[in-house]
């Protein structure tokens, strides 16, 4: 498995280009919709966006952008760019800013935040001294820190495009007004824009929501079942079973014990763990049972702590490694739910390791290498690594945080894995290593997490009897390798575009008889494959052979075994791959040997 150097922050020239193009877009929008109130418009990875409040229609519904609006806005943007209008910065007082943006309610709110300090012009927390500045080009002026290009003519007229419109709550709060967000992208030249747009098209083809429906893998039903709750269909369920079976066997071989814990726990459990103090906004409301409050579990760790605590442990018993495929429930706002990758109920491949202080470095090394081994089993070989440090909202002493951060840093160095520091990105109870897998489109996906925890053993008063006969506090490591089965499955679908490695395919081969007289031979071949442990079906529909092959390709079935007169008479199969490649005619036994070898190696085809 190859670790890449984590990406550098976006370079300043690209930041300026995207920020400036966002302002040009805002001018074009305000010209077309003079009544619009503008919110924020930052550059983002691969582009920019701007939020607008267009007001309401006569029937009370929100005004939204139509496709023809985007085309007209884009055309006007090119005209503004051609004007070569300079971007002019000016620092002003809060009073001047309020007068300048009178009637622009969102800007007034941002100005008041700047006036108080502690936030920037986008309303985000900052430690920098508040400075109120504006940028103006042509007739458009906005509250902005910058930086920007020298003039609009530096925006390549053929290298930007408006992509989509989405709803977005002001400041991400569903209690605030719904705004209209226009997403766009801009690149230094047309060629780079076209590369990016092609990547977007490929992303659409790989979208796990579309493929999940086409391949009958899973579904969601927000109206009747509930948002963020996944229904695993038989084919998707089989893939999940195969993935879990592989992982569980590797865990057992790797010195882990499998455990199972309840879906709810008493309020006192979550008070002790600190979740009700630091994580309550992500937990569901309590359930009252016999006068006591219970909560759906957002994490498995408190239960694993109690398993450790259930009897006296000796230093000889350590390390203890508990693994669980535990289903947890976390509240996510409906606006951020997304297929399998952002849900409310999900199953983590969770584990907690309890060890002596002298065992800690070896255990971190061990779990890091185990993580890489598991990911490689699914063909995930490239990733970015991050060391996430102490957040502002946390428990525990700074000295312990420092020691934990250094322990994780040292493990990454020993493993020779390049990494980037994610300042403040740790969990409230400890720092962590995040491994973000890179897919075929070079997108990052959060899967594996290794978290250190000095604090929970203290809170739950965990002890073991040392060699000296005295009680000692164990160290604890949280870790999830695939993250959650739901997110992992979404990533797996998009990584392979639904064309999974053969060992994971619900149907590994389909036998295609050319004519009715070949049905019996097809069934006999299918039976031979089943006996050999392969998953197979026979397409005995009335479709023509080419249509049957096409259907199998659409279902991403790895092997199509065509049977005609010669094949039926001689015990042969004509092998075609889902890619369209023809492998020629083979004896059935030879194909079985080949396919079983591919499965055993967990190869793609």
SSE blueprint:
Elements: E1 2-4, H1 12-32, E2 37-38, E3 43-44, E4 47-53, H2 67-82, E5 88-91, H3 94-100, H4 105-116, E6 133-137, E7 140-143, E8 160-169, E9 178-186, H5 190-206, H6 208-214, E10 218-220, E11 230-232, H7 234-253, E12 257-258, E13 264-266, H8 267-273, H9 275-278, E14 287-289, E15 292-296, H10 301-309, E16 320-329, E17 345-355, H11 360-377, E18 382-388, H12 398-414, E19 419-422, E20 432-438, E21 444-453, H13 455-459, E22 464-465, E23 471-472, E24 475-484, H14 485-496, E25 509-513, H15 519-531, E26 536-538, H16 545-554, E27 559-563, H17 565-570, E28 572-577, E29 582-587, H18 588-600
Parallel strand pairs: 1-18, 12-16, 18-19, 25-26, 25-27
Antiparallel strand pairs: 2-4, 3-4, 4-9, 5-6, 6-7, 8-9, 10-11, 13-15, 14-15, 16-17, 17-24, 18-20, 20-21, 21-24, 22-23, 27-28, 28-29
Helix pairs in contact: 1-2, 6-14, 11-12
């Amino acid at each position: 498995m190859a670790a890449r150097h984590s990406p550098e922050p976006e370079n300043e020239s690209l930041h300026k280009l995207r920020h400036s193009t966002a302002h040009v877009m805002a001018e074009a929008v305000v010209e077309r919709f003079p009544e619009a109130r503008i919110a924020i418009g930052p550059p983002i990875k691969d582009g920019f966006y701007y939020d607008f409040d267009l007001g309401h229609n006569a029937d009370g519904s929100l005004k939204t952008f139509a496709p023809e609006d985007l085309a007209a806005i884009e055309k006007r943007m090119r005209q503004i760019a051609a004007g070569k209008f300079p971007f002019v910065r000016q620092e002003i007082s809060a009073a001047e800013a309020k007068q300048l943006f009178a009637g622009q309610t969102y800007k007034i709110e941002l100005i008041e935040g700047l006036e108080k300090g502690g936030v920037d012009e986008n309303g985000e927390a900052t430690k920098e001294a508040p400075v109120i500045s504006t940028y103006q080009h042509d007739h458009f002026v906005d509250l902005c820190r910058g930086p920007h290009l020298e003039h609009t003519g530096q925006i390549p007229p053929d290298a930007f495009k408006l992509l989509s419109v989405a709803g977005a709550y002001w400041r991400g709060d569903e209690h605030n007004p719904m705004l209209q967000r226009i997403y766009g992208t801009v690149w230094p030249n047309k060629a780079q824009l076209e590369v990016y747009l092609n990547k977007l098209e490929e992303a659409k083809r790989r979208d796990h929501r579309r493929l999940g429906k086409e391949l009958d893998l899973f579904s969601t039903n927000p109206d009747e079942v509930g948002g963020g709750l996944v229904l695993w269909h038989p084919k998707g369920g089989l893939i999940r079973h195969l993935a879990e079976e592989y992982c569980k066997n590797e865990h057992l071989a790797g010195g882990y014990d499998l455990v199972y814990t309840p879906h709810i726990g008493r309020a006192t459990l979550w008070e002790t763990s600190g979740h009700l103090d630091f994580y309550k906004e992500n937990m569901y409301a309590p359930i009252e049972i016999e006068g006591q409050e219970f909560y759906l579990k957002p994490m498995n760790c408190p239960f694993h702590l109690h398993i450790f605590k259930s009897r006296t442990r000796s230093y000889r018993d350590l390390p203890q490694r508990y693994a669980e495929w535990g289903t947890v429930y976390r509240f996510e706002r409906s606006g951020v739910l997304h297929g399998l990758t952002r849900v409310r109920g999900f199953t983590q491949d969770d584990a907690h390791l309890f060890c002596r202080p002298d065992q800690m470095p070896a255990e971190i090394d061990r779990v890091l290498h185990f993580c890489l081994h598991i990911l490689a089993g699914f063909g995930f070989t490239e990733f970015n690594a991050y060391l996430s440090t102490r957040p502002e909202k946390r428990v525990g002493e700074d000295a312990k945080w420092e020691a934990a951060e250094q322990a994780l840093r040292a493990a990454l160095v020993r493993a020779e894995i390049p990494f980037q520091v994610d300042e403040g990105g740790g969990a409230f109870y400890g720092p962590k290593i995040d491994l973000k897998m890179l897919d075929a489109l070079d997108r990052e996906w959060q899967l594996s997490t290794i978290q250190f925890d000095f604090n929970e053993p203290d809170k739950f008063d965990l002890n073991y009897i040392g060699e000296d006969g005295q009680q000692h506090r164990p160290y604890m490591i949280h870790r999830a390798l695939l993250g959650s089965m739901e997110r992992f499955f979404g990533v797996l679908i998009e990584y392979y575009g639904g064309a999974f490695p053969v060992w994971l395919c619900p149907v590994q081969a389909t036998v295609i008889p050319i004519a009715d007289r070949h049905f019996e031979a097809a069934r006999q071949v299918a039976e031979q494959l089943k006996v050999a442990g392969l998953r197979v079906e026979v397409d005995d529909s009335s479709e023509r052979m080419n249509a049957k092959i096409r259907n199998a390709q659409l279902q991403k079935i790895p092997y199509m075994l065509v049977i005609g007169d010669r094949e039926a008479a001689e015990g042969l199969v004509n092998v075609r791959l889902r890619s369209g490649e023809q492998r020629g005619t083979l004896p059935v036994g030879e194909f079985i040997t080949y396919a079983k070898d591919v499965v055993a190696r967990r190869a793609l085809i």
